[in-house]
Amino acid sequence: IQETISSAKNNLSEPKEYAAQATSYYEETTARIYMVYQDKLKNNNAFDFDDLLMQVVLLLKNTPSVLEKYQKRWQYILVDEYQDTNFAQYALISLLSEKHKNIFVVGDFDQSIYKWRGADFRNILNFEHEHPDCRVIVLEENYRSTQNILAAAAQVISKNLERKDKNLWTNNPTGAPIVLYEALNEKDEGKFIVSEIRKLIAEFKLRLSDFAVLYRTNAQSRAVEEAFLRVGLPYKVVGATKFYDRKEIKDLLAYLRIIHNPNDLLSLERIINVPPRGLRQPPTANQRPILKKLQAWENFNNLLDELRQENKALPLTGLLKLIIEKTKYEDYILGQENGEARLENIEEIFSVTQKFDALPPPDGLGAFLEEAALLQNSDEVETEKNLVNLMTIHCAKGLEFSAVFVVGCEEGIFPHSKSLLDKTQTEEERRLCYVGMTRAKNLLYLSFAEKRLFFGSLITNPPSRFLSEISENIVLVRHSSDKYLSGQEFCETPPEDYS
């Protein structure tokens, strides 16, 4: 339901408009929830992320004077990653650039992989038609990948129909052929990856962080993780619990938000009894006068009032430290599971808040909360740590690694089973494959398994159609029967020191 409401907002469909177009029980139910949800947001003096676009577009459409003001203020519009814009973003860009026609967009239609988030790559495909006087600069030189990797990726993406031709080239060396590995099963696939990483580290002095294992869905990481754990190969799963999603960080952010916005009931619900203070749920409007008489509630109200006053004078870091001191949050978190690690996370947040201490109070708090809201919705990769990177291909977009393993290249997995009967979705899967392949600078491995234990069932899928689209002359096919670390050796090989 949340995704449906988000999609409606991305299409600039307000609650009443969405309700009028509802034709099924699900849509009618969602429409009622949508209306209640918007009322709750209004009562809390809040927007969600989709409102930040929809409400702005509606304001500009319905208030010509406001539109004229911002058209005058922003006479030159620059947009990056234009292939990932949705309808609301497209409408906003069109409105702002309508008067002066000074618009510069950058994007690659072959890397549009966020349709499930509402992105419409037709925005970039139709740009020349909508702006017939525009100048198109095609960037065809690739500075990252070898000639073989670039050729393989180009051969795959060329099978898409909804795109424009481009001839990518590079001055980089020809490089090694693309390794196509046929595994017996998912365990064999994991063993092969471990073996190759060990070999490449020994022969070419690569670091663990030079490697990435990419997969279509997060569920595929299990077998790879087990293979890594068995030999002590250090790794990280990118996109797991992110910094701003950890309990202790979310608690402190809730305190800061309720100080910044006293009407933020969601934040109030989170911290009203954290640390425990004898309160359970925030009172309703008619209960609040009674509950205010209770000492615990009165103390809590007084604490928030005091912190709001301090926010007018203290820099952000000082305010956060005062919150921790006044609530005895440090003692509380040390009593939780993994308390020491959680305390380190709290200490790490200070390195973020210090960036905002130069702003005069209380401006620092507002600026920090804006950035934190954005960071909570981003995927961070800690490239400074020497660990093998495991992540979905979506998560890998924009990154690069010396050696990349794309696993599970089988029909029904990649391309995903949900896309097989839909040509549009299949083309998005092919774009996703193109993105995965072009993360590699020097070495690219594509693997599939004859059989795979997946979601508790043993499945047998044919190799992905994407593999057959690559020319044989740039591919080296390897099998489980080839000489590499055998299963027995694999189990008996002790962990190595990769530090």
UniProtKB/TrEMBL annotation:
It catalyses: Couples ATP hydrolysis with the unwinding of duplex DNA by translocating in the 3'-5' direction; ATP + H2O = ADP + phosphate + H(+). One of its GO terms (biological process) is recombinational repair. Residues 147-398 form the UvrD-like helicase C-terminal domain. PROSITE patterns: UVRD_HELICASE_ATP_BIND, UVRD_HELICASE_CTER. It holds the Pfam family UvrD-helicase. It comes from Candidatus Portnoybacteria bacterium CG09_land_8_20_14_0_10_44_13. GO terms for molecular function: 3'-5' DNA helicase activity; ATP binding; DNA binding; hydrolase activity. Residues 1-146 form the UvrD-like helicase ATP-binding domain. This is DNA 3'-5' helicase. It comes from the Bacteria. Its EC number is 5.6.2.4. InterPro entries: DExx_box_DNA_helicase_dom_sf, DNA_helicase_UvrD-like_C, DNA_helicase_UvrD/REP, P-loop_NTPase, UvrD-like_ATP-bd. One of its GO terms (cellular component) is DNA helicase complex. Transmembrane segments: none annotated. The keyword DNA-binding applies. Keywords: ATP-binding, DNA-binding, Helicase, Hydrolase, Isomerase, Nucleotide-binding. The keyword Nucleotide-binding applies.
